[in-house]
Amino acid sequence: ASSMPAERYDPKTLEPDILTFWDKNNIYQKAKEKNNGKKSFYFLDGPPYTSGSVHIGTAWNKSLKDMMLRFKRMSGFDVWDRAGYDMHGLPTEHKVQARFNVHLKDEIIKFGVAKFVKECENLCITNMHAMSKDFQRMGVWMDFNNPYQSIKKEFIEGEWWLIKQAHDKGRLYESLRTMTWCPHCETSVAKHELEYEQVKDNSIFVKLKVKNAENEFLIVWTTTPWTIPFNLAVMVNPDIDYVRAKVDNEVWIVAKPLSIAVIGAVANKQFTVLEQLKGSALDGLEYAHPFADIINYSELKKQAVRVHTVILSTEYVDTSAGTGLVHCAPGCGPEDYEVGHKYGIPPFNTVDERGVFPKDMNEFAGFVAKKDDAKFVDALRKRNAIIETTEVEHEYAHCLRCHKPVIFRTTKQWFFKVEDLKEKMLAANKDIKWTPNAAFNAFDSWLKNLRDNSVSKQNFWGTPLPVWRCGSCNDYEVISTVAELEQRSRTKVIELHKPWIDDIEIPCVCGKKKKRVPDILDVWVDAGTASWNCLDFPQRKDLFEKLFPAEFILEGKDQIRGWFNLLMVASMIALGRPSFKSVYMHGFIQDALGRKMSKSLGNYILPEEVISVHGADTLRYYFIGATGPGLDLSYNQEDAKLKNKNLGVLWNIHNFVLDLAKTTDLNPAKLDVNIVEKNFGVEEKYILSRLHSTIQLVTQCFGEHRLNEVPL
């Protein structure tokens, strides 16, 4: 930034001066323009969420990205480096809700949806500008003047184009499914939006009385007592051996391998085996539900003759735990739903969006799913249906957004049909370069287990689902552009978000009006379309035809089920090919003791805390070489101090070289063989040899994506 180098390495003074110099002289723009027209390198920025401040992990991520981009520019590539931001979704809704003390959907509606959405938009834009400023303070060279933003009209149209492509190809459908549901966020939660925590729950061993038999019971086990009112069947494995065991004056039916554990250990009872039989012999056995006195199951029995009978399943019944008989509530779990669907048993579940039982559940009216498990246990105990309760520690799904436990709920959602694309995706994935190889294995495993996940949400702040449906004849159509919507509705479209988009109606062939289905799109669909939205496709074609697919993406290991997943799904549906050629995956940042950073533990730090003391270069230098691809980084302040000292040594060496160049009238950047032979001794030649060997090694490291080895 000046003609004379500073005497001492002081990043707190130097770095702001350098940033000012870059800005004043358009250095970043000149570096980009230098390679205009040369070989292209399409880097796709995984959009960070506009949460308000740059997380320490995001700083690590951007440091690695900037490192690769600088290398590619210095190697002569015309680099596409447009920054991007993920801006819709529940985290923003939650912050606005907290700010205005509105917590339920009814309260948001009373507050005013238009006002609420505008507050969400303002928060995201404010946070985006703050984050861009933070990234630039870190010295990151990316296009922050024209970032792609998921809230913009053009971006939303890019998502609508995907939905239209899915519809035209028969890959968009609506279905009644048993879905994971967050009663706090009041919306469905897809598989990739779940996090699992170890929790302790009370499990129960329940007696279900066999019909037309004297004191005979099927014994089932569950960790979710609140689902017992929705029980419609009992699953057994046809190939497992079961026993009818006399226990006191009753007969219990359990799996033979578990009989001692259940009857002897859990119930602490003596028993005598009366009969041994295969599970297949139990098929169709009827039982009386313990809550039949308060819940009217008669309508369900009209729909399916197999309600409250034993059904068979080899896939979901084993003897690893429980009793070998599995409580089946098709409205309360995906596996239960699948088996129930096979037998024509409906997905019965009537809890509302907040997990509350309705009035027609009589004694259970007002009870809350999961939260009131103990009340359901008491109700079973009153009916002499409980053998025992035992505490179990197990993994339980939580909402990735609010971190609260989820439940299952029967609900209509929109889905992408992708299960029949798995083999094509698996084959395409073999041509993608993954670093480390463990990332390939993890993504390969994810794809092998890929299911049709929902793409719809029941919230306010998000890309509107572009489906208009007639309430009279049920005909619907999918809209792909604003121009098409204006033409079909004969209405000028000003704002694409809720609630304004919901006012636009389309004439139906039946003479009535089509209204938009009120759902919004899963925020991961936003991110999944970034590969073409970053290039302003489909509005413009030239950049897409020149650059797509992305040469390189770089994100953390949590994106296996997140961004990597949706990038693949979206591009395979819309384009029939992957949207990226190579991936570098890093781990998570933990504290020096290997613990997850959190404010509650007091071990959470912001990048600014490091930068204000040691400078951004220290932070970047430390991050880049601290650990290998895919591995977690345990942040240690002493290591950061050491890196700062190393940079001080490097600064002094540079000063020495610059001073030497002036005194010898030699320019290190313009050395040729003659100058070297004439002026340099063996020591200097050795140093130059090491320099060029290092250049070769560094180039190789970049080419092989061994990024952590570059500064070593």
Short description:
37% of the residues lie in helices and 20% in strands.
Explain this structure:
The protein is of the alpha/beta class. The strands form nine sheets. Strands 7, 8, 10, 11, 12, 13 and 16 form a seven-stranded mixed sheet that branches. Helix 3 packs across helix 20 (616-626) and helix 19 packs across helix 20 (616-626). It is globular, with a radius of gyration of 31 Å. The model has no long low-confidence stretch (mean pLDDT 93).
Name a few traits of the molecule.
712 residues, alpha/beta, seven-stranded mixed β-sheet
Task: Give the topology.
Elements: H1 11-24, H2 27-33, E1 40-42, H3 56-74, E2 78-80, E3 82-85, H4 90-100, H5 105-111, H6 113-137, E4 143-149, H7 153-168, E5 172-182, E6 187-188, E7 194-210, E8 216-222, E9 233-236, E10 241-247, E11 250-255, H8 259-266, E12 272-278, E13 287-288, H9 298-303, E14 309-312, E15 325-328, H10 334-342, H11 373-382, E16 386-399, E17 407-416, H12 422-429, E18 433-435, H13 437-448, E19 456-457, E20 467-470, E21 476-478, H14 482-489, E22 506-507, E23 513-516, E24 520-521, H15 523-528, H16 530-533, H17 542-547, E25 553-556, H18 563-574, E26 582-586, E27 589-590, H19 607-614, H20 616-626, E28 633-634, H21 637-664, H22 673-679, H23 682-703
Parallel strand pairs: 1-2, 3-4, 8-11, 9-14, 18-26, 25-26, 27-28
Antiparallel strand pairs: 5-6, 5-17, 7-8, 7-13, 7-16, 9-15, 10-11, 10-12, 19-24, 20-21, 20-23, 22-23
